[in-house]
């Protein structure tokens, strides 16, 4: 079956964005005027996802607050003729069911995904890391199709210069890519030294996983800092059955650090129909 649920791990402290993230969760930092988390949910909905499980922490109440109704704000907007903004606010969380799960200890990505288990049930599901913003839903949609067709898990892939592989999960392909960018994966390793990297194909923050991954997460031995790596659970899946990657040339922004976030905001601003033209003019004069 095709994935209907997405898990979004959003419990991290956002230390790279301190002091802003003392009060505002990193996932709610604005991309112009839209929280990154909303863009992630829009991407999921565009790929056919109907339920979202946001894995958050009790230290970040603003995440849940974002999805609450705001009748006073909406009434004020409508009474002053700003219906388009009111309509946008009313749509938040309406086109998709959003529920919350909690990860109150930083025990790694595998642990975070495991915290979403009750909200997923016994069916394939997507995982979207909110530190990465994609240009559209095409990659996730293709990954959902490949998972439904193969009955196995699927990860998003990207080529990087070999010198950069040690910051990522790296896959060992078991053959060439097909004409759709799909490749069978033999195994994978988390953050290998360059000399030990099996390829230059890294796992980007999009996954479609079969539910047996939860049992495998439970068997992963914690690594440094007690962290349970998702990649270790995926390696167990790949050892047992079909496991694929999808390479795509989709536009991708790493918004997990201030420079990446700023780059993404600038790119989006240049294309924005409301501010793109004046912003471009200002930027030309400035640089
Ligand atoms: C995580 C995963 C890694 C993946 C990366 C993508 O790493 O553990 O396999 O390549 O996301 O961004 P992190 O960025 O949390 O260190």
Comma- or semicolon-separated keywords:
single chain; 287 residues; alpha/beta; Spore Coat Polysaccharide Biosynthesis Protein SpsA, Chain A; 9-stranded mixed β-sheet; two-stranded antiparallel ribbon; 11 helices; binds 1-O-phosphono-alpha-D-glucopyranose
Shape: globular
Order of helices and strands: EEEHEHHHEHHEEHEEEEHHEEHH
N→C terminal distance: 51 Å
CATH domain topology of the largest domain: Spore Coat Polysaccharide Biosynthesis Protein SpsA, Chain A
Largest sheet: 9 strands, mixed
Domain count: 2
Structural class based on helices, strands and sheet pairing: alpha/beta
Can you describe this structure?
There is one protein chain. By secondary structure, this protein is of the alpha/beta class. Helices cover 35% and strands 23% of the residues. It has two domains: 252 residues, Spore Coat Polysaccharide Biosynthesis Protein SpsA, Chain A (Alpha-Beta Complex), CATH 3.90.550.10; 30 residues, no CATH class. The chain contains eleven helices and 13 strands. The structure holds 1-O-phosphono-alpha-D-glucopyranose.
Q: How would you sum up this structure in a few lines?
A:
The protein is of the alpha/beta class. It has helices spanning 36-46, 61-66, 71-79, 83-91, 109-115, 117-120, 138-150, 213-217, 230-240, 258-271, 276-286, and strands at residues 5-9, 30-31, 34-35, 51-56, 97-102, 125-128, 132-134, 153-159, 169-173, 182-190, 201-209, 243-247, 252-254.
């Amino acid at each position: 079956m095709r994935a209907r649920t997405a898990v979004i791990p959003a419990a991290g402290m956002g230390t790279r964005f301190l002091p802003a993230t003392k009060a505002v969760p990193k996932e709610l930092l604005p991309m112009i005027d839209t929280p990154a988390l909303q863009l992630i949910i829009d991407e999921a909905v565009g790929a056919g996802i109907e339920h979202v499980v946001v894995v958050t922490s009790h230290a970040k109440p603003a995440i849940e607050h974002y999805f609450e109704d705001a009748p006073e704000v909406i009434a004020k907007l409508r009474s002053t003729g700003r219906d388009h903004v009111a309509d946008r606010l009313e749509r938040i969380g309406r086109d998709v069911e959003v529920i919350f799960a909690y990860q109150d200890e930083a025990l790694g990505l595998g642990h975070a995904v495991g915290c979403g288990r009750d909200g997923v049930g016994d069916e394939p599901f997507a995982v979207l890391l909110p530190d990465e913003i994609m240009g559209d839903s095409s990659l996730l949609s293709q990954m959902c199709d490949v998972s439904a067709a193969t009955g196995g898990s699927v990860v998003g892939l990207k080529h990087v210069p070999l010198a950069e592989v040690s910051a990522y999960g790296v896959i060992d392909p078991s053959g060439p890519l097909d004409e759709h960018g799909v490749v069978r994966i033999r195994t994978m390793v988390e953050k290998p030294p360059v000399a030990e990297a099996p390829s230059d194909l890294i796992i980007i923050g999009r996954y479609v996983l079969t539910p047996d991954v939860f049992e495998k997460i439970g068997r992963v031995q914690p690594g440094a800092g007690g962290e349970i790596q998702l990649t270790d659970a995926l390696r167990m899946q790949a050892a047992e059955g079909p496991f694929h990657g999808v390479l795509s040339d989709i536009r991708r922004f790493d918004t997990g650090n201030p420079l990446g976030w700023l780059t993404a905001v600038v790119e989006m601003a240049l294309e924005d129909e409301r501010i793109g033209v004046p912003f471009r003019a200002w930027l030309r004069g400035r640089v």
